[in-house]
UniProtKB/TrEMBL annotation:
Enzyme superclass (EC): lyase
Residues in Orn/DAP/Arg decarboxylase 2 N-terminal domain copies: 57-302
Organism: Acetobacter peroxydans
Keyword Lyase: yes
Chain's gene name: lysA_1
Protein name as it appears in the record: Diaminopimelate decarboxylase
Family: Belongs to the Orn/Lys/Arg decarboxylase class-II family. LysA subfamily.
UniProt GO MF annotations: diaminopimelate decarboxylase activity; pyridoxal phosphate binding
Lineage of the organism: Bacteria, Pseudomonadati, Pseudomonadota, Alphaproteobacteria, Acetobacterales
Amino acid sequence: MADLSAPVGTDPTLPELLRTHPQLSMTPTSGLTFEGVALNAIADAVGTPCWVMGAGTFKRRLRRMDQAMREAGLDVSLHYAVKANDHLAVLSLVGREGHGADIVSGGELARTQKAGIPAGRVVFSGVGKTDAELEQAIGLDIGQINVESAEELDIISAIASRLGRTARVTLRVNPDVDAKTHAKITTGLAANKFGIPFDDAAALYARAASLPGIEARGFATHIGSQILSTGPYRAAYARVAELVRSVRASGQTVSHVDCGGGLGIAYRAEAEGQPEALAASIRAELGDLGVKLAIEPGRWLAGPSGVLLSTVILRKEYGMQTPFVVTDAAMNDLLRPSMYDAWHGIVPLAPHSPGQPCAPTHVVGPVCESGDSFARDRDLPPLPRGARIAILDAGAYGAVMSSTYNSRPLAAEVLVEDGEWTVIRRRQAMEELWQDETVPAFTGGTM
């Protein structure tokens, strides 16, 4: 997303990036390391582009989030937002830490089950759940379905009744609160497609309580992603608390509130969102309601836990103009800069002397799109042909959004921890790009 909180001219230097990313270090001999593993060694063995996820970093952040809630005295269940990074290795870390998952599709539900996360710890969000997905979720008796509309509530009731099951639901309320984030990732405004209008929620909750196959448990809200201040959270939670009290006053029972996710990270010069501040906001607005609480963090956990490695294909000089450094990673690998004008730190893998001069550089990919760009006028040391870079904070909405556009195979993925590393997804073979394609005989084809 565009970095609305970081004005032009505030780009961190390479030493500053390393200081704010303690999982990284620069050594004189091995160059850039991630959790004690030399990234050049991974690139030598696996090639580039290559995703590298840090299991230790992910677990430390997961534990900090959980601890912040517990130290605030909150009864909170943590459900990792699978859409941020759905690799089975990441999901297995979540399950082994004793936490659940927030899903938005049947495929994500299947992944959680493959990774060993109990169905009872799964929350199903999303504005367009299909009948087949709902049948799958209700059949597995998942922990909760966040209902997005009156129409969806009727569909869930009918499916649960037909299956002879009871679906536990919360109503996702749209509080019409501006999260002050990028327009493409805000979800809590009245103009957004998500959730039930606040003014309709109380009446729909009363109706939900009377429907067959439905156990109405409470309310959910999620106002957006990459949120860096607590003001929007407090505003949204205050509206939910108002709704809970109103519904209870009318005789209804409310036992659960799902607080959503969206806590932001420091891509550029922003101050990272703090779990402790989020916990304080939840406690201030919802702490006296006597409800079971839930949160759905994704980006905050996975983003800083991953990097994308890439190699410079060539350096294209333009006289006195800013040169282009063309890398073997592209927008089909990491879409965020092209889609959201997102800023990601870029650090060379080779040892860098603090006194080495930096100069403005355009870092771009080889895809045939002008938008295939990772950085414009970025101050970087010389990056000749064959130089390698790490694109930082790419663990969330990176590999999971990759495609094979321009018939570019999907990159390999590696997991590191405590000085060790292993491949968790091999690089896609070229032949796999068309292995599921056929050429019909009526076209004259013979394949």
